[in-house]
Write a structure and sequence with these properties.
Distance between the termini: 34 Å
Order of helices and strands: HEHHEEE
Shape: globular
Number of domains: 1
Largest sheet: 4 strands, mixed
Structural class: alpha+beta
Number of helices: 3
Radius of gyration: 14 Å
Amino acid sequence: MTHQLDRVRHIRQLNDEARIFLTDGTIFVTPGIAALPTDDQAAILNRVRTFEDFDPENDPYGEHDFGAFDHKGDRIFWKIDSYDRQVRCGSPDPADPRVTKRILTIMLASEY
């Protein structure tokens, strides 16, 4: 059990670092986000980077890989997915940054 908790904590740390510092990964924004004024895009990215409203409903596994919030009447979703380094399939081990590339996607909930 302790090993599994340590693994989840490590994945959470890697996801938080990727989201907060925008490191070791790629950010994708959907067409709906890209169509917003640049000031709104910047505000949304800042909200994603500073997101702290994790709870059992939006983060059931404790990995900090999803969040949702409202921005000027729009519901915004963000999601981190873990892929292999070539981004061909899921990561064989999301806790190992040597074999994982994180993809942060930011979208309007209506685009989901």
